Amino acid sequence: MKYKRILLKLSGEALMGKRQYGIDPERLAEYAQDIKTITDKGVQVAIVIGGGNIFRGVSGASKGMDRVQGDHMGMLATVINGLALQSALEDADIPTRLQSAIKINEVAEPFIRRKAIRHLEKGRVVIFGGGTGNPYFTTDSAAVLRAIEIEADVILKGTRVDGIYNADPEKDNTAVKFKSITFDDVLRKGLKVMDTTAFTLSQENKLPIIVFDMNTIGNLLKVVSGENIGTVVNV
To answer: Model's pTM, two decimal places?
Structure first.
């Protein structure tokens, strides 16, 4: 395996599958089996998942809701998704721990860096819920922050698109995919990979990002093995 410890970033919308909202158990089961293919090979896996399938703080704020209140609702949505993913992983016989940046001790451990690393070293998948614990920060920022804290080798951003393009490939048939691209080029070309705060934090810490299609079964193993799928963002 090319990478020993990874941080997998999943969007909340990814859990919807073909539904309009909520969580699709079949999609969860597919993700769990994909993750099992790499944990069986000794890869240490941490996961940050969004909450957009349940609630988005920014969306609520745009409709008049207090932004801080909305963001806290979004954090709780990520914990709900974390619990669902934890259940699916454990159904696949993968030992899993859910840690939350906000205190919900009845359902999740508090985030403690050393404890998280110890779980990873013991072969447990660690899911980080609750974002960063602070409003105005996205789960992209949480993913990069946690990846740096646990000293992950790479951030794998699983999406429904197979990489980074110079235009939206779902709207533009002439869009060209990048096999690799530098952080500076992403910024210069105005490409959307992560929000600016998260992206800058990753760049400053020289933490590579790989954007790939998570919805194709087997892709996760290929990426971790070092196969050239998706797009690598590096210095």
So the answer is: 0.94
Give the integer Cα–Cα distance in Å for 4 and 6.
Answer: 7
Q: Are 219 and 152 in contact (CB under 8 A)?
A: no
Task: Identify which of 131, 127, 129, 160 has the alpha carbon closest to the alpha carbon of residue 57.
Answer: 131
SS3 181: strand
Q: For the chain, which ranges sit under pLDDT 70? A: 57-62
> Cβ–Cβ contacts within 10 Å for residue 34, how many?
20
The residue type of 221 is L
How far apart CA 235 and CA 233 sit, in angstroms, is 7
Q: Are 160 and 215 a contacting pair, CB within 8 Å?
A: yes
Q: Which domains does the chain have, with CATH numbers?
A: 5-234 (3.40.1160.10)
Cα dist. 140→17, 80, 106, 198, 222 in Å? 20, 17, 26, 6, 23
| Joined tokens for residue 175 | 């869009």
Q: Where are the alpha helices (DSSP H) in the chain?
A: 25-39, 57-62, 67-91, 113-121, 139-149, 183-189, 196-204, 219-225
Query: Other C-beta atoms within 10 Å of 80: how many?
Result: 20
Q: Are 49 and 78 in contact (CB under 8 A)?
A: yes
The tens digit of pLDDT for each residue in 189-217 reads: 999 899 999 999 999 999 999 999 999 99
CA distance 17 to 82: 16
